[in-house]
Amino acid sequence: MNENEEKIIRTSGSHNCGGRCVIKAHVKNERVLRISTENDIPDTKENPQLRGCLRCRSYRNRMYNHDRLKYPMKRIGKRGEGKFKRISWEEAIDTIAENTKSVMEKYGPDSIYVQYATGNAGRVAERTWMKRLLGMYGGYLDYYGSYSTACTQIATPYTFGTIYTGSSRDTWQNSKLIILLGFNPAETIHGTNTAYYLKMAKEAGAKIISIDPIYSNTAIGLADKWIPIRPTTDSALLDAMAYVIITENLQDQDFLDKYCLGFDEEHMPSGIPEGNSYKEYILGKSKDKIPKTPVWAEAITGIPKETIAELAREYATNKPAALIEGFGPQRHAYGEQYTRSGTVLAAITGNMGINGGWASGTGYPVRQEFVASIPISNPNKSQISVYSWPDAIIRGKGMGSDLSVKGVEKLFSNIKLMFNLGGNTLVNQHSDSNGTAKILEDESLVEFITVSDHFLTPSAKFADILLPADNMMEREDIVTPWGIGDYVIYMNKAVD
Ligand code: SF4
């Protein structure tokens, strides 16, 4: 082929997005001229095309942006000020290597932390290579959990023993009612064709209700009804729905008697004192003595009591019904309770284990990870919760299981060196951004920070060495969608 001719290179998005679409880069003379998407296979209900949204299709704006980082830099101002000077790759690599060596020798592997990052979610993302390298060099302090789904991943197994509580999304076509609770797949895509499957469900006759503080694109485009709710009050809504269902005897008692423990006093695990069943809690007969009535919930959620009661009746009497819990409402303190309220509601109405129902909670379907990441072997077994790294900076040495440490009894060191590769989590995801920034500014705490990114983000400003990262058009990689969709896309490199 003449090199001046336009080539079409197939790739995919690999950034922080729960979808994975087929993206086609139209390349000429080593430049991406335009971006299109899958349109060359039949688009069928059974096998819909994996069409990209505007985010990837407008990627040229990001890729060729004037502000993109283009070369390595070192900090010349105070840490966090965002003042840098261009240096060579050799100097950048030598500086990172020297600091890593010196911190490892002085403090040991508990002092080296590779920060949670999802800016590049490919199988060979830069943080994965760094973990592999550090694993071969004595190890590093690892984390467990996720900023996105920590509460639901902990809480859902309390009800079901697993986070794999969903089905494939084409089953929504069999639902009579779909309740989207803090779930906005038209914008926050989780599974490329999720909104498409909701549309198919609607065409098949399902009623869709969106409960969301925001009149979202999903509420506008897909829902028959939008119920606004005060943020972080979802659990009160769900408990009040349970109150209506129980007091009007709409629960699926056969299902409860056969499959569930803990609903009423007659079905409790042995050894549990009286008054601790779910029913007693909802009716206000347990310790807190608060009946979880619609009137009680109206004051908390801002949703009229009549609307709550009607929603409860609709959910209990329109089987199969899918109560789909989004991840947004669990991303706050006590977010586990929202997850648990939803899972119990699905159980007491028997809306699980049936085609068109949905067990709530995390909602991942059982699937296979077809392609693993590159192998990493970390000889250091210390782990902290993904939220705990500021604690581990200030008082890591001696931190134990009471402060989230797993794998060892206590940490041997505070965090002294950080890699933040392909993510803006240092200050934009963590709670108390200002407090976190203060910790990072203090060079007596973390002695060295390496960041790689496309732009000078708020997190990148805290770098001692700042590296320019490549993007989805500039590397080979392999991606799969998050949580949903059994396919793999190979990302071909489009340009250097
Ligand atoms: S859904 Fe995600 S992977 Fe697909 S085009 Fe949009 S941003 Fe890219």
Describe this protein's structure.
There is one protein chain. The protein is α/β, with parallel strands linked by helices. It has 3 domains: 7-67 and 474-491, no CATH class; 73-147 and 374-468, 3-Layer(aba) Sandwich (Rossmann fold); 150-348, Dimethylsulfoxide Reductase, domain 2 (3-Layer(aba) Sandwich), CATH 3.40.228.10. The chain contains 16 helices and 17 strands. β4 and β5 (84-86) form a beta hairpin. α5 runs parallel beside α13, α8 crosses α12 and α8 runs parallel beside α13. The model has no long low-confidence stretch (mean pLDDT 95). Residues 13, 17, 19-21, 52-53, 55-56, 189, 192 line the site of iron/sulfur cluster (SF4).
CATH fold title of the largest domain: Dimethylsulfoxide Reductase, domain 2
The percentage helix is 25-40%
User: What's the CATH H-level homologous superfamily of the largest domain?
Assistant: Dimethylsulfoxide Reductase, domain 2
Poorly predicted segments: none
Could you name the CATH class of the largest domain? Alpha Beta
Please give the radius of gyration in angstroms.
25 Å
Bound molecules: iron/sulfur cluster
End-to-end separation: 19 Å
Strand order of the largest sheet: 5-4-15-14-13-6
Helix/strand-derived category reads: alpha/beta
Beta content comes to 5-15%
Number of strands: 17
Number of helices: 16
Q: Could you describe the largest sheet, including whether it forms a barrel? A: 6 strands, mixed
Looking at the structure, what is the overall shape? globular
Domain tally: 3
- How much is the average pLDDT? 95
CATH second-level architecture of the largest domain: 3-Layer(aba) Sandwich
